[in-house]
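Example record

One chain of 295 residues, shown exactly as stored in the release files.
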Amino acid sequence: MTTTITRLRMAVQKSGRLADAGDGLLAKAGIKIRSAKGQLTARATNFPLDLMLVRDDDIPTLVGDGVCDLGIVGLNVLEEYRLDPANEDVDVLARLGFGGCALKIAIPVVDDWSPAMLEGKRIATSYPLLTRDWLSREGIEAEVVTMHGAVELAPRLGIADYVCDLVSTGQTLEANGLKPVHTILESESVLIRTRAAMAPPMVDRAEALKTRMLGVIATAESKYIVLNAPEEALADITRILPGAEAPTVMPLMGMDGHVAVQAVARESVFWETLEALKAAGARDILVMPIEKMML
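Predicted structure tokens for this chain:
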């Protein structure tokens, strides 16, 4: 007897910075998760979603093979996975705006930098496929030494001459006498989906979840702006509004030639922006946070 799967399965990192940010994103999207400490799965109580709590390296495989429908994973992990031709590819549905970092070549602080200095050297990394791919594109012959942790110690231990490591703040590299000199990949967390066949109801549920998550991301920096202005100032004001699409414009009662303007600003609104709006003729400017947004 075949069991019909009616709940989405999403692979997420079981612990760490990305796990915490992913939990926060789901919570802001209105998804209530019931989990028990030490469990490998968690269940949403108000949405047809089950979470698989796994290592980040396993997330692309679980989604690529269709074991999970969706996944949240760092782009660095995904691109390393994609460079192996034996792996099934996945679709990237959205960039999620958290977990920002970069995969970088790092060298001892005392050395000067040029790509040619890597020729014939040993480079330690946890991302051998991405490193070899970059070296190939640069025409550099070098030996890649695969490590699964403490990559920054490789030069000090004599394991390698240089490293290709994931950098967030750079403090770990600095503590080990290294400096990042070249970026191979800019990374952040992404939402991925399997290319395996999904039943239409599951596709709709995946799309609904993606829409909620994108709405949360959109509201993170978005603000709702309301102001009054003379009609002749509208063109200048519209140009100043940060990241806003066509604003809503309504006449002000009892004030001929004046209008109320309402707009959603998709970028940060700074005091300098408000000063520029006022200089253009805007008055009574209100900037308010947006709790929810459906794109």
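Notes: The radius of gyration is 25 Å.
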